Predict the structure.
Amino acid sequence: MKQKKDVQQGTVALMLLKTLELLGPLHGYGIARRIEQISGDRLSVNQGTLYPVLLRLENEGAIASEWGPSENNRRARFYKLTRTGQKLLETEKKDWEQTADIISHFFKVKAEDLG
């Protein structure tokens, strides 16, 4: 059985926005489970980490929420991506791709390349 890793700080918002883009409106628990599923069950999303990010993104206008019934007929807050959130997702995606490229370059470089 593989050990799940906690989500790295600074990545929750990006994964949350991408999940909502892919799947449409979801409640917090559903978002957490879908992030874990999309990661191939390699990540564990802590509710204490997720909900402050949801609140921040909603305050920034990146997501909007409304109350509705969950799958088991309990009242839940469903979150959806806004136009502002879509733009933020595009920006964040570019930033992470650039960062990943830089880090990848560091792992590939050899001492003789620097001479």
The chain has four helices and five strands.
